[in-house]
Design goal:
alpha+beta; two-stranded antiparallel sheet
Length: about 70
């Protein structure tokens, strides 16, 4: 079982194995689904209408994000 602590400001760090499993990167959004006494954490999906360039994976490297961050 993977655990993390809640801070006094109700914040937590998502453990690295969880980030890896969900392929999370900076700026990603999370979705929470509550089922009885459990919470399911998933990477939130954005519709194509939200991001018209979501289908273009060619420019998803860290170097690209830095190069085009201020456009």
């Amino acid at each position: 079982m993977i655990k993390s602590k809640l801070t006094t400001k109700a914040q937590t760090t998502i453990p690295q194995p969880v980030r890896a499993a969900l392929r999370l990167k900076e700026g990603d959004e999370l979705a929470y689904e509550i089922e009885a006494d459990r919470v399911i954490l998933t990477k939130a999906t954005t519709g194509l209408a939200d991001d018209p360039f979501a289908t273009f994976g060619e420019w998803e490297s860290e170097a690209d994000r830095k190069a085009y961050a201020n456009l």
